[in-house]
Amino acid sequence: VQLVESGGGLVQPGGSLRLSCAASGFTFSTTVMRWYRQAPAKEREWVATISSTGITTTYADSVKGRFTISRDNAKNTVYLQMDSLKPEDTAVYYCQGSNYWGQGTQVTVSS
Description:
Shape: globular
Structural class: mainly beta
């Protein structure tokens, strides 16, 4: 099983980033996928969930209206579109599915 995140980087406040998570080794199309994040000196927190079909999505209050989770089951990939980024969004972002975790991708929001 592999979950490989990409797309992180440094962005100014108000900017956007799109994270990707490529999955392999399990039946992606039937698996609920989630994004989490962990800021320095803080516990890992849940960010968003998407159902296996992509029809149902849920978000943490802190990102609702700014972040969008989506998936492409043909590509075994889940995405996190992050808009209107704030400095408090700075964290390592992880995707999770089928009890497995990716290695994370760093997102830094700073001017």
